[in-house]
Amino acid sequence: MKPQIIKTDGGEELVVLTRRAYDALLARAGDEDAEDRATARLAEDHLADEAEGRTATVPHWFVKLVAEHDSPVTAARKHKGLTQAGLCAVLGISQGHLSDIERGRRSLTDEQRRQIASATGVEAAWLVD
Asked: What residues does the HTH cro/C1-type domain cover (predicted)?
């Protein structure tokens, strides 16, 4: 996700983030309340998935990687030890394109999701932001 930057009349730059991104930033800085909010959000998402018949349980180790890297694609790539260039070769896309996907500027196609899952050993369902 790309943050929005707003410049005040006085020239100061303000950064607008989603609550999820803000909590992830605070959690990485050691804020336990932010970690609790992120955990609660994951639990709510999981319960909603179960209520709708979707049961894509994501293991704790992957959730931690996503929290560290802000992107499930980056987390999967790092898990496998791939560079961006290495994953680009698998996907047949440019490094700039992959960077845009990892930063939330572009969405994955279903085919790219399957290719990344196959190349990294994670479940395709985990690669949804």
From this structure: 73-127
